[in-house]
Design brief:
Blueprint lengths: L1 H25 L2 H10 L6 H9 L3 H8 L13
Helix pairs in contact: 1-2
Length: 77
């Protein structure tokens, strides 16, 4: 039983670290681009900023605030 608890705790710590890295990446465009590249997406900070600038305030709110319907999550569970 202690081994299962240790393994579960290890997974929870890994998940918490991954969430923290994603949170940091959202506030840092360079980190966001690196995170995206690790997942197979290729674009520059300039591309990202250009695309974000084209979004309406409502679209941005729908992405970044999951409390406003329709809900669009950056990191679906």
């Amino acid at each position: 039983m202690p081994q299962k608890n240790a393994a579960r705790m290890y997974r929870e710590v890994q998940q918490a670290q991954a969430r923290e890295e994603r949170r940091k990446a959202l506030s840092n465009p360079e980190a966001f681009v690196k995170m995206a590249a690790a997942r197979g997406y290729t674009f520059t900070v300039e591309n990202l900023e250009s695309q974000l600038a084209q979004l309406s305030d409502e679209a941005v709110a729908a992405i970044f605030n999951p409390g406003i319907p329709p809900r669009h999550h950056l990191f679906p569970r």
